[in-house]
Write a structure and sequence with these properties.
It is built from 9 helices and 11 strands. The C terminus is likely disordered. The longest helix is centred in the last third of the chain and has 18 residues. Strands 1, 2, 3, 4, 5, 6, 7, 8, 9, 10 and 11 form an 11-stranded mixed β-sheet that branches. The protein is globular and about 45 Å long. The two termini are about 30 Å apart. It is an alpha/beta fold. Helix content is about 40%, strand content about 25%. The protein has a single domain, classed as TIM Barrel, CATH 3.20.20. Helix 6 crosses helix 9.
Length: about 260
Amino acid sequence: MKIDLHAHVKLSKKTPFSLAYFDQSIQDARDAGLDAIAMTEHFNTDHFFHIYEELDRHYPYLDHYYDINGFKVFPGMEVDVDQKGHILVIGDRASILELRQRLEPFTAKGAFIALEKLLDWCDELDLLRIGAHPHRDSNPLTQHPAHLLKRLDALDMNGKDLYSYGLSMRDEVKALAEQIGIPVTAGSDTHHPLQYGCVINRLEHECASYADIRACIRQAQYSMEISDSLPIHVKAATIVKKLLKERGEVLLPPI
């Protein structure tokens, strides 16, 4: 199964959720060779719960994922933590929504949750957690103590960072992961579907739950792929995203 473990389904935090944009994004993800994504929308995006309300109205939820005409969308979110850093959390729908409810007092800048408390809640709710873009200058994770980072399931080899910093970022993330003693997974960090396919996780088994995904990661039953056309994917997505935000649109322009 080929999956992107860091994907956004809105153009930006301030953009309304659009089912048409979502549907087109999933088709583009499928066209890019993916079978599934983890829907890691920002936890403090505008109207977070509306995303799930809309998906519940239009698509079946099969135990642990939304079935979009055979394409799997696993619930998740990206959480800002105190002292900088973002954590991707992935799990069943009820646990993700429960965590988001608990995070309501922590949504504003300056009031983000402590990493240790977030990890404690993730333990309680049995959530998969990945340290997003750990070496990104604007939001690194390296300032957090190793004993907390070791509680993550993996670090994120981020498609956007590979474009911004070059392939040396891959080696930096792998070195940090080896130092801590956890694996590395790949995520495009896409906000626009043109970015799908820049990086992919190829799991050795078909996964029907976040627990299946976690098992593949822990047992090293997966590989990561970086597309030769990653710069084109990310640059094109960045340009189109900027244009659409300036025009106040959420749909892709006709091809």
